[in-house]
Design goal:
By secondary structure, the protein is mostly helical. The protein has one domain: Chromosomal Replication Initiator Protein Dnaa, Chain: A. Helix 1 packs antiparallel against helix 2, helix 1 packs parallel to helix 7 and helix 4 crosses helix 6. The longest helix is centred in the first third of the chain and has 25 residues. The radius of gyration is 15 Å and the shape is globular.
């Protein structure tokens, strides 16, 4: 294993720890550990993980890096909550349900072809599973 790979693993571990702390703070008032996370909690965790603001997630900006982060949050919202696509779309700056559907399909496609995306999804989902358990 090269020094660069070791550094990448350390960075990933630090991000996971940061997200776990953030998710724990957001959900600590949750007495029922089986309740799914809120979309707000997911936004907070994703914004912390990728170091973007929640306002950016809700904004109309279409910068490629920001769109990816927004799509990631929508993907997690669909997979971790019982909310419908219209509710998820409205939660992200009054977007249409088709935008949320596209986001989920996009992340699923990226996960199959990009190991980094799959690791990010796993790390973020693990954060919610550990806190909710």
């Amino acid at each position: 294993m090269t020094q660069e790979e070791i550094g990448h693993i350390r960075d990933l571990r630090l991000k996971i720890v940061r997200v776990l702390r953030e998710v724990d703070e957001v959900l600590k008032d949750n007495e029922d550990g089986n309740r799914p996370p809120s979309i707000a909690a997911i936004k907070q965790a994703v914004s912390t993980y990728y170091n973007v603001s929640i306002n950016d997630l809700n904004s109309a900006r279409r910068a490629r890096s920001l769109v990816f982060v927004r799509h990631m949050a929508m993907y997690l919202a669909k997979n971790l909550t019982p909310h419908s696509y219209p509710v998820i779309g409205r939660s992200f700056g009054h977007r249409d349900h088709a935008t949320a559907m596209h986001a989920v399909k996009r992340i699923e496609g990226l996960m199959s072809g990009d190991n980094d995306v799959a690791q990010d999804v796993a790390a973020l989902m693990l954060a919610f599973v550990k806190v909710g358990a």
